[in-house]
UniProtKB/TrEMBL annotation:
The chain crosses the membrane at residues 33-57, 77-96, 129-147, 154-173, 193-214, 221-240, 252-277, 289-310, 322-340. Keywords: Membrane, Transmembrane, Transmembrane helix. It is found in: Membrane. It is a multi-pass membrane protein. Its main location: membrane. This is Integral membrane bound transporter domain-containing protein. It comes from Rubrivivax gelatinosus (Rhodocyclus gelatinosus). It comes from the Bacteria. Residues 208-334 form the Integral membrane bound transporter domain. InterPro entries: Memb_transporter_dom (IPR049453). It holds the Pfam family FUSC_2.
Length: 362
């Protein structure tokens, strides 16, 4: 028993060290400020005109800013513009699924697989495909009428376009303070990393949404978003640590969310709170993911539900968000076990390889 207790104590210490480990960051403080402006300015405009719901849609497009690499200006702008197009396309696909609910699950699984393929093919760093899929998931469950579809997609594109402009202005200043990093040579694409992993990730993202709908969750779109955020780890160990960060950070973040939602927030205060949360997230996410999740949780809740704050009680909303997170993390852990299991890869990957021309396989 003493040997078991010593091993358990050593395991607990190792897990605790992983949880509290803080990474170094070379981000300058102006980057979180620019990210907060990309997210918050559309909300301020929406509050000015008395349509906070329009500003919230544009704020989703503002998330494009966080995909900007630390490279030379020409590479930054090409990347941002490509991400702006991809974010708009994903949101439009999600909104279209609102009119055909039966297609939401396969469409979201397909988008998660394709966007993950592209992100891995071009070696894009975090947050990877997360925000693209989140935009599609929120769009799929947004109460948009047919004639409002171009309007909603246009609002998101305007937010993404504003993020590109802010990225350009920020880069003019930032490149004077920090030399640009060289554009890394893209590694040769492999079947396992680019295709197989992406298809499996997309399948489990779709499975998580299907389970959320079967269980009748009030906001099923958070489940696939959580699943994708966790399953993207490069190893089973990384997935496990990220899951712990996600669950514990969300639990703490829900307390903060309850406090925020309990305040009498108006359109202007919602915009300012979202900008503050975005600033804290971007300054901390590269240092400690779990700490950043504490602020990501209320930020995402406000992005999706700020237009209906007076209609929703904070308690049920917080409880539903925790249930979504727990279900998404559970499916993500199951998917990660499959992804990192050699037998599963051999059994499932063999027929998948037959569908691809041999000249394209590596």
């Amino acid at each position: 028993m003493s040997g078991w207790s010593q091993r358990l104590a050593a395991l607990a210490r190792a897990e605790w060290q992983h949880l509290i480990q803080i990474q170094r960051s070379d981000r300058i403080w102006q980057m979180p400020v620019a990210a907060a402006l990309a997210t918050g300015l559309p909300l301020l405009v929406g509050a000015w005109f008395g349509h906070i719901e329009y500003g919230l849609v544009s704020s989703l497009g503002g998330l494009v800013f966080v995909h900007m690499p630390a490279t030379a200006m020409q590479h930054r702008m090409v990347t941002l513009m490509a991400c702006a197009f991809a974010m708009t396309a994903c949101y439009a696909t999600g909104v279209l699924c609102h009119f055909a609910p039966g297609w939401a699950i396969p469409a979201l699984a397909f988008l998660a697989a394709v966007v993950t393929m592209l992100v891995r093919l071009y070696a894009m760093g975090p947050p990877g495909s997360l925000f693209f899929v989140m935009a599609a998931a929120i769009g799929a469950y947004s109460p948009v009428e047919v004639l409002q579809l171009p309007h909603a997609v246009g609002l998101l594109f305007l937010g993404a376009f504003l993020a590109v402009l802010i990225g350009f202005a920020y880069s003019l200043y930032a490149l004077r303070l920090q030399a640009p990093q060289p554009v890394a040579e893209l590694p040769p694409p492999s079947f396992d990393f680019v295709i197989f992993d992406s298809v499996v990730i997309g399948a489990f993202v779709g499975l998580s949404l299907a389970l959320a709908q079967v269980l009748g969750l009030s906001r099923p779109y958070w489940v696939p978003v959580t699943c994708l955020a966790v399953i993207q780890g490069v190893s089973l160990r990384a997935v496990w640590v990220r899951q712990l960060h996600r669950v514990l950070g969300t639990a703490a973040g829900l307390l903060l969310s309850w406090a925020v939602l309990s305040m009498p927030l108006g359109p202007w205060s919602v915009a300012l709170v979202l900008m503050l949360l975005s600033f804290v997230v971007e300054i901390s996410v590269v240092r400690h993911y779990g700490f950043a999740v504490m602020f990501i949780t209320p930020m995402t809740i406000l992005l999706a539900d700020a237009a209906h704050l007076g209609e929703i009680a904070p308690g049920p909303l917080v409880q539903a968000r925790f249930a979504d997170t727990a279900l998404g993390c559970g499916v993500a852990l199951l998917g990660a076990i499959c992804l990192h299991n050699r037998r599963f890869r051999a059994v499932v990957g063999r027929p998948m390889r037959r569908l691809i021309p041999p000249r394209l396989l590596r």
